Amino acid sequence: MKKILFILAIYLPTIITAQDVVLPVDTVLDNDTALMDSVHVVLITEDMSNAIVHQDSAIIRLMTDKRLGRVRGEQIVDGFRVQVYASNRQQVAKNEALMLQQRIEPLLEVPVYALSEPPFWKVRIGNFLTREDANAYKDVLLNMFPDMVGSTYVVPDKIILVQ
Prior knowledge:
Blueprint: H1 2-11, E1 20-24, E2 38-44, E3 51-56, H2 57-68, E4 74-87, H3 93-104, E5 112-117, E6 120-128, H4 131-144, E7 153-162
Parallel strand pairs: 1-2
Antiparallel strand pairs: 2-3, 4-6, 4-7, 5-6
């Protein structure tokens, strides 16, 4: 039974849109569009005559999300972040960005991102829908970290909205 579930996890990571499907084990489906309440699959292998697996579509959605790197409830949209660091000094930029992230993240209630956009390493803070919200948070940051006044800017970025 574990072998069948393993095969399903590997070879059926997307939605099957028929009620009764007979598939060779090495068939790979790639159809992420349809959803259904349950799936009835018959796999025919050399080892066994027939195996019938009744599987809820939620399991297939979870496998598909994992394969595609999706997290349910999150959406990537255009927005703004507060950039507090950017450097292209290859020898030290990565370490400085990661150390800055580790230093300030525990003090803040918003996410801090250390990003590599070659040749630059950057540290950006927050997920703000409007420039005004990002500017307001920039003022809060500068009150907390006055030494960052010369390197802190509001920048447009792709942000993560959690619904």
